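User:
I study polymers; will you set down one protein's sequence and C-alpha cells?

Assistant:
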Amino acid sequence: MPSDTERAAVKLLVRVLNHPLRKGDYENVLISALAVMGIDEDGGWVKVTDYTTVYSAIIKVSRMLVVYQSAIERKDAVTERAKEVGVEAAEDEVPSIFRYVRVKVQKFMTRTSGAPDAEPTPMDWILEMRTMGLKIQYDTLIPGHVDWTKDEISFRRARFSMGQLLDIMHGLVQEAREILAELTMVGEGEGGGEKLRGALPTILWASIEDDHSEKRPGYSFLRDDRNVWTQKGEGWVFRQIGVSPRLARRWGVDGSRAEDARPGVFHPAARRAYEHAFGQFRERLWLLMHMLGGQPGRATELAGIRHSNTVNGGVRNVFAHEGSMCFVTAYHKGFRSTGQAKVIYRYLPQEVGELLVWYLWLVLPFWQEVQGTVSGSGGYSAYLWADEILAGARGGQDREMDQLGGLGLDGGGEEDEAAAWTWKEERVWTTDRSRRIIQQCSSRLLGSQLNVSMWRHIAIAIANRYLNEAFGRPGEGGPDEDEEADDINDSVWDLQAGHSTRLAGLIYSRLLMQFGSGSAAKQQQFRRVSQQWHRFFDFGAEDREAAAGWKIGVKREAEPYDGVRMEARLRRQARLRQVDLGGQLRQMTGQPGATFRGNQAQAVQAIIEGHSPVVQIMGTGGGKSVSFMLPAFCSPDGVTIVVTPLVSLRTDLDVRCAKAGISSSAWSSRKAPQTAAIIFVTPESVVSKGFRDFVSRLQARQALDRVVINKCYVVLEGSATFRPKLQEIGAAVREFRVQTVCLTATLAPGDEAAFFYSMRFDPRRVLTFRSRTTQKNIWCSVVEAQGHGKGGEDAVEAKVCEVAVAWFEKVLWEKATGKAIIYADSIERLERLGEKLGCPTFFSSVDSTEGKAARLETWRQSSGSEGVIVATNALGLGIDVPDVRVVFHAGMPRMLRHFRKGERHGWAGRSAERFGSGGAAGRERGPAGRSSNGGVCGGRRVPAGGARPDHGREDGPAPLRGRRGGMRLSPGGAQAAECSQAERQRRFDRWQLEREPMQEGGEANRFLQQLHQVQNSCVLCHGDKEHDNGEHVFSECPRKASGQWGRVQKGIRLIETEMFTKRRFEPFSGCFHCGLPQGICERWEAEAGDRGQFSAGSGHCQFSLTLVAMFVAGMTRLPEAVGKQMVKDAMDQEGCAHEDDEAMAEEALYRWLGGRIRWAGIEASRLCRVTALIWDRAIGEEWVF
C-alpha cells in the first residue's frame, strides 16, 4: 500500500498534468519546467535533436502516473464499497481500472478534442512539440563521430583495429569456455576450455529438432522428445560431483542428486564460488550474443529473452534452426503507420551456440536444483537474463496492470501479440548492468571503454565499410510522425540493428566528413546476415562445413573484405622491401653509429625478400634478435610470432622490444591475445589448438608475416620425458604455411640434418647463415673426480663443493663482484648441492611462475658469495646476466651444446670460467674433439669465445651500400619506411596507453576470482602443492604451530588495527568494514542511474577480512626483500617521499595504502591493487618450463 506521502505526491503530479493552458503556455508549471530543462550547462539551449527524447520520457512517465493513480483510486473505491456489500460484490460493482484510466486519458492525456468545452493541456502542447522535434530530427544529419584509418576505427574516445576487435571476440569465447569447464566440473585451471568438446555430452547439430510453433508451457528444444540425445545430460553435473571424492567433499554431498540432499547439505563456500562463476559466465555469454549475433539490438530487447515457454503465455525467444542457435526479438517502431511489429532473428556461430546449449542443458538445471533445494522454492525463471533464476510470485497490483492491454497507450492488436516476445514479469538485467558488462570487458580486453550505444554505432560502421556490398542499401523512405517507417526494402542489416535504412544514413556511423551534409524469406536473409557477420570475425567454421555438406578441403567463398586485406598485406610487403635498413637500425637502437655486424645484414635481407626457411647461426650476444625485431620495427602492421623456450627469456626480449619502440605481447590461453607487432609464445603453447586457432585468425586477416624459432636447437632436446612438445614444433609450424626463421648460437654442422628433419625442412630450400660463434674471454676446464668423498659422499658433488668454496673464498678475499651457476645433471643432485652449499635452487617444478621469477630476480640482484644458484640446464637459455664469472657442471654434460650454457656470461668485459667435473666414465662421454666453432674442448683450458661487441665494433663489416634484391641499404638513403619515426612513436605510445587499462582490467578480474578462491580457505596454504588440501581454513591450519602461521596471524591483527580501527581508508575508497571496493562488497548497493555512487544497503560483507589476510599472507610467502621492494616500487611510481623516521614511515605507508585510486574503472584503495600484485607474485599458477 502506498503511504500518505506517496499518495499526495502522485495526486500533485497528476494535477500538474491536468492544468489547462488558459493564459499562456509558460504560465503552466510543467511547460516552464521543461523550458528550464532546455538550458544546457553553458547557458545556451539544448539542440532540438537532443531534446526530443525528453518529451518522450515525460510522456511515458506521465502515462505511468495516470495508471498508478487509477489503480490507487480503484483500490480505495473497492475498499470503501466492501464495507457495505463485501469484497467480491465490491469488485463487481466498482468500475474497472480501464474506465478510470480512460477518463483521465480523454481529459488531459491526448491532443485537445473538438468538444465545445475542451481546453488545451500540457500534454497537448508536449505532443505537438515532440511531433515537430521528430520531423526536425529525421531530416537533420547529426555530426559524424566515426573515422577510419586503414582498418582502425575511431569513435569518440575509442580507437582500435579490426584485428584487436577480432581477438577480444575469440578471447571472450575462450574465457567463457574456461568458466564453463569449471561449472560443468570437467576441468579447472588453464586448458580446461579446450577439453569441453571431448568431455561434455555431444550436441548433435545435424539432427537437432525444434518445433517453433509449440506454445506448451515449459517447452524448449531441450524438452522435445525427438532429441533423444539430450537425455545424456540429465543430472550431468551431479554425476560429476558424485564420482569425484574431492568434489563431493567440497560440496558436502554423498549422493548424486539434489533430492537426496537436505537444504543445508550443500557447503556454503562451494555455493558461493559456483554462484560467482555462474555470474561471470552469464555476463560473457550475454556479451557474445550481443556482439556476435549480427547487428546489435537494444539492451532492453535482449533483457526479455526467454529460453522456455511460460504458463502466462510468454513465448520463448531461443530456438534451434537448421543446425544453429538463434534468438528472436521484436520492437514496435512505426507500428501505428504499418500495423506491424518488427520481428528480428539473430543467429549465433556454433562456437557461441554450443556455449548457450551447454549452459541451458547442463549448468542451469543443476544450479536451479541447488538453489531450489536450499531455498525450498520450486519455481524456475524462464528468462535467460533474470536477476534470480528462481521465479517469484506476482502481486495483485501486477494482475491489475495486465488489464491495461486495451487502453491504447502503446498500441494494441497485433502489437500485443508481438509483445509476447518481450513482455517481462520478473526482474531482469537492467540496461545499467548491460552497460557495465560491456564497459568492463572492453576496457580489460580492448583497452578502449565501450558502451551499448557506442557498440551499435561501431557495428553499423563496420557493416557499412566491409559487408554491405553483398546486400546493398536500397532507397530511402520517409518516417511517420511518431517513429521511422518500415519500408519493405529496408536493408536487413539495418532492421537487425533496430532502425530503418533511412535512419541509418541519418544517424548511425556517420563519418567525420559527413558533418551537416517475420517471413521465411526474411528469416533466411537474417540468417545470411548473421553468418556473414560471423565470418568477418572468423567464427562459424563449423557452420560453413555443414553448409558445404561436411566436405573436407572445401574452400570458402571469398568475402568482399578479403581483397582489402590482401591488398593491405601486399602494400606492407612492398614498403618493407624499400626500407632503408641502415637508417631504421639506427632509429631502433637509438645509436647514430650503429651498423650491421656478422651475418645480420644478409639474414635480414633474406627475411625481407621472403625466403623460407631461414636459419641464422651467430654467436651469443651477436644480435640475432635483430632478425625479427628490425622487420617488426619497420612494418608494425604485420605480426611476427617468436617461439621462446623460456618465459624468463621472453621477459628479457619483451623489455628490449619496449625500449626499441616495438609493441610486443605474450600469448596465453587464459586471456585474450593483445594485438602487437611481436607475439611471444612458448613451445608447449605453439602446438596447442588454442594457439593454432589464433594463427588461423591472423592468417584470415592477412596479418601474420613470419614465425621465428628462437634458440631453435632446443627442438633437438625434446624427448618423452623432457618437454615432449618440442618434438611437435616442426609439424605445427609447417601447418602455418608462413615464412619460418630459426635463430641459434648452438647448432653444429653435424646436427643440421637432424634439426632439418625435426623441423620438417627440405634441406635443399634452407637458406643458412653461419658466422663465428667463439668468445675469447670464456675459459673451460675439466676437473676429474674419482672414488668417493668423506663418509661415502659422491665424489663429483664433493669436488664441486670444494672448487666452489675455493672460488667463494677468493671472491671474498678480493672483494670482487659477480655470480656463479652450478649446473646439476639431475634434480636429486641439484637439491643435495643446494642444501650443502646453502644456496637457492632453480628447476622446472621448483615453484610457480611468479615464484620462479622471484627466485631469478633475487639472484640477479645478488653478487659475490650470495650470488650463487644451483640449477638444471633450464637456466641459461638466452637469459641476459652479464656478470656471471664462473659456471660449474656437476657431472660432465651429455652433449656439447649443454656445456655451452656459460656462453652468454662475461659480457661486462671481464673473463669468465667454466668447470666440468666428472668421473672417468663421465669424461669418456664428455665433449671432446672439435666444436662447431673450431675450438677443442677436452681436459685442458682453451679459449671459447670473445667479448660481446658493440654496434660498430672494429672487426664488424663496413656499412653496406647499394641495392640488393630491391632493398636499399645505404645509410643516408631516402626514407622509404612505412611510417616516419614520429608516426611510429605515436603509434607505440598509443599502444602502451591501451595496454594500461587492459592490464588493470586483467589485474582486477584475477583479483576478484582470487577473492572467491581464497574465501573460506587457508590463505597460508592456498596454492601450495605440499600443504593445500582444500579442506581447511586458516584457523584450522595444520601449520598452526609454525612461526609462519604466527606471523600471518599477527600481521592480520596489525593491519586490522592500523587500517580499520584507525580509519586509514579515504572516503569512497572502499567498504570501511572489509576494505573492498563498494562495487564488489554486498554491503553496498548502486544508486539509481548507476553513476558509480553507492549507498549502504541491507547486505553484509561477503568477504569479511579476506583482503587483509591475502595481503599479509602474500607478503609472508614472498621473500621479505621482494615483498618490500614491490611496495616501495609502487610508492616510487607515484612519487611518494620516504620518511627517515621509522614510525613516521609506517604511518605514511598505511595512509598511502588507504588512499583512493581509480582501478580498472572502479574506485578502490591502493591496498586492493597492491594485494592483487603481491598475491599474483606469491602464488602464480602458470608454469615457466
Remarks:
- Residues 4-139 form one domain.
- The chain has a mean pLDDT of 76.
- The chain has five domains: 4-139, 159-388+428-467+516-539, 560-770, 792-905, 996-1180.
